[in-house]
Amino acid sequence: MSLTADEVKKIAHLARLGIDEQDVPHYAEDLSGMLELMAAMGAVDSENVPPMAHPLDLHQRLRNDRVTERNEREKFQAIAPQVEAGLYLVPKVIE
Amino acid sequence: MYNKTIAELAEGLRSRQFSSRELTLAYLERISQHQALNAFITATEDLALKQADAADAKLAAGDAEPLTGIPIAHKDIFCTDGIRTSCGSKMLDNFIAPYDATVVAKLQKAGAVMLGKLNMDEFAMGSSNETSFYGPVKNPWDLNAVPGGSSGGSAAAVAARLAAGVTGTDTGGSIRQPAGFCGITGLKPTYGRVSRYGMIAYASSLDQGGPMTRTAEDAAILLQSMAGFDEKDSTSVDRPVPDYRAGLTQPLDGLKIGLPKEFFGEGLSSEVASAIEAGLAEYRKLGAETVEVSMPNLKLAIPAYYVIAPAECSANLSRFDGVRFGYRCEAPADLTDLYTRSRGEGFGREVKRRILMGTYALSAGYYDAYYIKAQKIRRLISDDFKNALSSVDVLMGPVAPSVAFGIGEKIGNPIEMYLSDIYTIAVNLAGLPAMSIPAGFASDKPVGLQIIGNYFAEDRLLNVAHQYQLATQWHQLTPPGFE
Amino acid sequence: MEWETVIGLEIHTQLATKSKIFSGAATAYGAEPNTQACAVDLGLPGVLPVLNQEAVNMAVKFGLAIEAEIAPYSVFARKNYFYPDLPKGYQISQFELPIVGNGHLDIEVDGVTKRIGITRAHLEEDAGKSLHEDFHGLTGIDLNRAGTPLLEIVSEPDMRSAKEAVAYMRKLHELVRYLGICDGNMQEGSFRCDANVSVRPKGQKEFGTRAELKNINSFKFVEKAINYEVERQIDLIEAGGTVVQETRLYDAAKDLTRSMRSKEEANDYRYFPDPDLLPVYISEAFKAEVLTTMPELPDAKKQRFKDQFGLDDESTTILTSSRETADYFEALLAASGCEARLCANWVTGELSAALNKAGQEIADSPVSYDRLAGLLKRIADNTISGKIAKQVFEAMWQSEAEADEIIEKQGLKQITDTGAIEAIIDKIIADNPGQVEQYRSGKDKVFGFFVGQVMKAMQGKANPEEVNRMLKDKLHG
Question: Is B150 a catalytic residue?
């Protein structure tokens, strides 16, 4: 299993990750190496093994429906790249 | 002063042999003196002295908490209110966290003084601290060698006596491997024992914070204040925290140690093998018994990990988009340009590699073959551990196949780097607690002995480590030039 | 060719919790931008979600109301995509294991009852809002809404006309409001609808290619958007074209749907279980507890109103159209002690008309049930006539006075003194010999003339039955 440059670009776009054109072959090579490593999993019969998403077999705990947070906009927006009138600004969203 | 353990320092502060201000100044002096190690990303001198003065007042008033006045430092993955929290990334170079991580708040409440924030692999992705935006950390035992990673700054700081104790995080060995490479004591608790709230997520189902210290006793002291249920973390476990220090003194007569044969096979350097063997011999002298066990699926830990961790990280790191915090590219042309360039410029190579890997593993058509398969393998590995731990008290083996390697030696070959985590990664998949303790030297560099325990058996691990440290001197040694 | 329309609806209901689904920030509508977006809602580095108990209760309540399977074990998943109103770059939703499974809802169209299947309902978090007003060519993002709990209710493609779709939507709207799990405010976006619409030649088994219509947030628009889209698809196919699977936005101003290019590209959402959240377990005991909080549902209430009060289909439909209306009716009935028929007539007649005219909801009615009860009592005991009662009601609408005060003050009491009525009747008979002659020669219609004259002379305050009886006696001599 190996990845082509085009596949790398496609994944990079899905992840909105800018990659320099000249780096694409390196990523393709690295990812192909990782996939090779993963090929070992294919040899294991795991048909009846339930997937394990969490180390501990626990239930989700539920919180009470209470408002506990106060307005901290000023503090949160002090670290934002661009804000105006309490809004975060981004390049125009076209629908 | 700075050569003392936390236990000794606490005693010295209480008996007024020295003040927290004196102690804090001494550490700050050392931090500035050893800047070449690059262990700290940010030193918080003013805050540290303010906290030290407050600690001294409390000590004088006789209402000291367990850690009152003890100078510690945090891995820069823990959010600290009002202080830059970079996670070792350009992406967060300008990020002043607006809140405290639960671990930070708990240690502060216990009286600890914060000296600063420690260097680390970018977003905790790495095994050598070379992926940090702030440059590699040097291993105090050999300035040309890596300190391990991702908690490399943490391990180096403790080894070089730049802090009495520190925090680290461990997703695939990031506490234990650097602790091993730097000759200190590191504990990765059971998943869910320490709150993850405010700890910037790499792989949420694997990440766990823990203490890194000189001794097991110090690890017990720090863990005591770090551990416990947190209502802000759904994965934190509501279960009482035992008195870790109280259990340290239990003798090891009859202790059953399992030795997974897969930990001692091909790939393990012979000099590390002999140091580990000597450590095990010491345990037998202390009354323990060793038996071989087998965990046949262990060899699949690395493949499974490099599906699961990147998959989780690919989503966890989506929030770094240049909109609400962190790095934003110059003059984005449109929304897609804002995203791709902010992320492309803000993340380093290893982080990008893992985001790409994870995105691929979750994408349509590959999900079952990679992600679901890896989760099944995860269960098989977890079952292997359960089986092994049903007949022994703890498992032991090396932390890493070799001692600390050279800076630049493996960074060009990511796969080889990944393989160096072979003995630590499986533990995270299972969620078990494990420690690394200093157990000798090979080629003049420290060797770490790994001890793996059952779920929530941190007290037993600390006891087993402490008894060894009562009988040996490895943990007492200071790197040359840092005495 | 004859075409058949196939419609399935996805309805997003904002659950009426006080705090958000995964954080303790308030959900109140209309706050200053980003003042109700806490660290968790903003997706700050290091924060974690914790599930709101009430959101789970409400989802289970809904599931029980539509007789659905409640999943004993459900899982939250991350739906990955980049959009500025989605702070984490993923939405926490449910994918493979939703909390509510197969259920159904019965609708009635043109007197025919039809069962609409509900495939699933799952919990998820709402996104923020993009404000497109001009910020120097930029878009502003308000994340107050981010993290508001949503229950997404997905129907089977069981509807065959826009009318059925609207009936289903109305029925669901009524249900969630009955259950108290959603305020149903469509202007504020509490109840939003996407429609999957396709057409196929009548008789064909396979579904046609569907378009997903977004942003159709009123009953009227749903109907118009679907009708437009159906026509568009038929025209397209008949002209030799093919329908493409896409998301289309309904433009209410132009009454048409148009393709949303921005949502089209590669939507590979890469769902996977959210590792920050654990599986949700719903026990039988939990369900039983939720059941104890379950109100009487619209269909059951309607049936009861028929059985218990002998009311007809038309009035019970109106009376049970909202929980508030039904509650008002029952409260009025209890407070007045009058006949159900009288109470029903007033609620569905005079009161509804006045509320409609004023654009008000029954819950905020200027005439409360106990004031109206005071009025109905006076009708029942013949103090006033039905006609006068309407006059009193109007006065009550304008003031805060009780019916009795108004009757007293305006002297509207019905005259029951037969002596006074008799005197008037005698005078009118004496003054109009011609009409008396006509009546007596068989022209019954003239009787109305006498009634009118008497009522006029008595300013409408005479008891009409009494007037009728006495007039007849006198005229027959």
Answer: yes
